[in-house]
Request: fold
Amino acid sequence: MIRQVNSSSKILIVDYYTHDIIFSIFTRNELANENIELIYRIDRKDSFPAYDAIYFVSPTAESIQYIVNDFKKKNMYATANIFFTNTVSDDLIGKLKIISNSIEILKELYVDFFVFESRVFTVRSEECFQRLYNSKLQGKTIEDISTKVMSLLATLGDYPDIRYFDPEGSTSNIAAKFAYKLQEKLDNLTDIDADFPKKTPYKRTNMIIVDRSYDLVGPLLHDFYYQGMANDISDIENGVIY
Reply:
């Protein structure tokens, strides 16, 4: 993303969500080595007309409106290079037409997740547990989480066989609903992306989906490894000490 913008003066513009994604991967020094001279939140109004702007933002109406405002009347930056964390609806893309002359790059990336370790990731869906067990919010929450998990699988190039926990066989529990929604999104991705899934000599992986009710005791257990001890005695948030 950053190296696709050929410029010696770049400013990276993020929202509150993508800010954390960036800094879960890079340090400020690493970004500086890629000619990122400034890192700003998208709601700031400072103008740097000599800098090429790299927008790394969520595909929301709010983010797009901020971008439009930056170039609608007077260009706050030299160019707009826009990278979304996930797919964007046609309606939202249409709102960028008014500033099309200022846009150099417009891409959808599949990076709508956070990586903590080589085999650990999260989609950071706020108040996920409460929302999943709220009948009014469950559908939207499953939609949000499945979209983010799809972005992870798209990045890995992996199209797994999905298995889910459904002891009653009714397909009405959370795990089943999530499995069907994720399968739908992966099927759609194969229709629009000829390179997905990646060709591999290995067998298809299995994805096993369970909900919290499958293991109620897990959150109450405590291990005695260094990682658990560090979290006990240090102010660690999302794997980072501030």
Remarks:
- The two ends are 27 Å apart (CA to CA).
- The first strand starts at residue 10 and ends at 14.
